[in-house]
Design brief:
Blueprint: H1 4-15, H2 20-32, H3 34-46, H4 49-53, E1 58-67, E2 73-84, E3 90-96, H5 102-119, E4 124-130, H6 139-153, E5 162-165, H7 172-186, H8 206-224, E6 233-237, H9 241-252, E7 256-261, E8 265-268, H10 275-284, H11 292-295, E9 300-303, E10 314-317, H12 326-334, E11 339-341, H13 350-358, E12 362-364, H14 366-369, H15 371-386, H16 392-416, H17 423-441
Parallel strand pairs: 3-4, 3-5, 6-7, 6-10, 10-11, 11-12
Antiparallel strand pairs: 1-2, 2-4, 7-8, 8-9
The protein binds NADPH dihydro-nicotinamide-adenine-dinucleotide phosphate.
Length: 445
């Protein structure tokens, strides 16, 4: 008889053909859940539990017309996938990137459900975005796109319904334009988006939260294995929101960050990357990393190459899905890397993950290690509901507590199921337990 897991996996493939990222994300979770599913198979089968878990509750796609500075009309596709609301209102970012398609949205929304569960807060899983590329666009063009996008999206979101945030290509500027249009359409000033400006409902630490959280969880794992970030050589991929604040916190904790990248290449700075300079280049000037060596003597730029080839103790992949491939994993192992902590969502291919685990590299999956961003978004939602604003220290302490709670849940699952140091399975099992308990208690919906 085909196992229940395999039957559900086949159904996902049949119902969502040509969605390789979604298949990859579901397969990883179902494989991790093998011991739990086998223990409860009869009950899960009779309630179609896994079938419900892999099917989004709602998924919309819509046309987004906008006009560029030369008056030319462009048409983009917008998405919002509301995957699972067992634990609370849908919550998850918006991504503006040319690779956005249905597969990418389904994979991210599915992953988000488990990530949000790990935070312990009341948030379901969702994700959205568009194949719009903000690179090289003027502020007016970005505003025009955001306003058109929100003119459709606002019908599906709300503070108790679905609360989007930023992701790749959606930072403070885009959230501002999106919120402005939401407010204009609804006449409501409410906490429907997170990552808002600090002067109008945003939470302190939200900007830093994902990157800081990556380091906090890395520290918990390293501590368990008798190590710490202090004195470690760190390589990061990406130079966006997650990468910048992971670098900043790693340096504060005593590490040296020797490499960072963007989609064109990477910079290597053996004496330690100047994060303020990266911020200036990427956040203020919106320029390419290639200019860094012109401003920081002693550093080099490697065009068209990945930062994982630089020897390091710890790698933080913080750019995009499937960027860390098997050859990169082999480089990391050969160069003596001890740990890989994912800052991005599913940045490591399945083949590379399996290889790293087999080689005994400590590995934290993004759904656990990058959960700090959505956790502070959850705290932004509660501050908005109460119309209060917490201090930086207060929110940072809460973030540290949440990351430490995630580590406890993973450790408990790993111990209970005798998984050694397989924190991928530990995170999936811990998250699944919370989601499934709520789904069972809420009936067949
Ligand atoms: P940003 O848009 O701020 O930065 C993305 C970074 O990745 C940029 O440096 C970009 O380079 C680089 N990049 C994009 N595509 C590629 C590619 N094909 N190869 C190499 N580098 C690439 O996004 P975020 O930092 O917000 O997000 C990064 C990752 O973290 C994503 O997977 C996201 O889903 C995840 N994440 C983000 C959270 C958040 O709070 N922001 C929360 C949880 C997860 P370039 O400048 O050249 O485009």
């Amino acid at each position: 008889m085909t196992s229940y897991r395999h039957k559900v996996m086949q159904q996902v493939i049949d119902m969502n053909p040509a969605e390789p990222e979604f298949h990859q994300a579901v397969r990883e979770v179902l494989d991790s859940l093998k011991p739990v599913i086998e223990k409860h198979e009869k009950e899960y089968r009779s309630s179609q539990l896994l079938e419900r878990l892999v099917e989004p509750e709602r998924s919309v796609s819509f046309r987004v017309p906008w006009t560029d500075d030369r008056g030319r009309v462009h048409i983009q596709r917008g998405f919002r996938v509301q995957f699972n609301s067992a634990l609370g209102p849908y919550k998850g970012g918006l991504r503006f990137h040319p690779t956005v398609n249905r597969s990418c949205m389904n994979f991210l929304a599915f992953e988000q459900t488990f990530k949000n569960a790990l935070t312990g807060l009341s948030m379901g899983g969702g994700k959205g975005g568009s194949n719009f590329d903000p690179h090289g666009k003027s502020d007016r063009e970005v505003m025009a796109f955001c306003q058109s996008f929100m003119t459709e999206l606002y019908k599906y979101i709300g503070p108790n319904e679905d609360v989007p945030a930023g992701d790749i290509g959606v930072g403070g500027r885009e959230i501002g334009y999106l919120y402005g249009q939401y407010k204009r359409l609804t006449n409501q000033f409410e906490g429907t988006l997170t990552g808002k400006g600090l002067g109008w409902g945003g939470s302190l630490v939200r900007t830093e939260a994902t990157g800081y959280g990556v380091c906090y969880l890395a520290q918990e794992m390293l501590k368990t294995h008798g190590m710490g970030l202090s004195g470690m050589k760190v390589v990061i991929s990406g130079s966006g929101n997650v990468a910048i604040y992971a670098a900043q916190k790693a340096i504060q904790l005593g590490a040296t960050v020797v490499a960072m990248s963007d989609s064109n290449g990477y910079i290597y700075d053996p004496s330690g990357i100047d994060v303020d300079m990266i911020k200036q280049i990427k956040e203020v000037e919106r320029a390419r990393l290639a200019v860094y060596p012109k401003r920081v003597p002693g550093s080099t730029y490697m065009d068209g190459r990945k930062s994982f080839e630089v020897p390091c103790d710890i790698a933080f992949p913080c750019a995009i899905q499937n960027e860390l491939e098997i050859n990169d994993a082999i480089d990391l192992v050969q160069n003596g890397c001890k740990a890989v902590v994912e800052g991005a969502n599913m940045p490591t291919t399945r083949e590379a993950t399996d290889y790293l685990l087999k080689e005994g590299i400590l590995f934290l999956p993004g759904k656990a290690s990058n959960a700090g961003g959505v956790a502070v978004s959850g705290l932004e939602m509660s501050q908005n509901s109460m119309r209060i604003k917490h201090s930086f220290e207060h929110v940072d302490n809460q973030l540290q507590g949440i990351m430490s709670g995630i580590w406890t849940q993973i450790s408990d699952a790993v111990d209970e199921y005798d998984l050694g140091s397989n924190y991928v399975d530990g995170a999936n099992i811990a998250a699944f337990r919370r989601v499934v308990k709520a789904m069972r208690e809420q009936g067949y919906v």
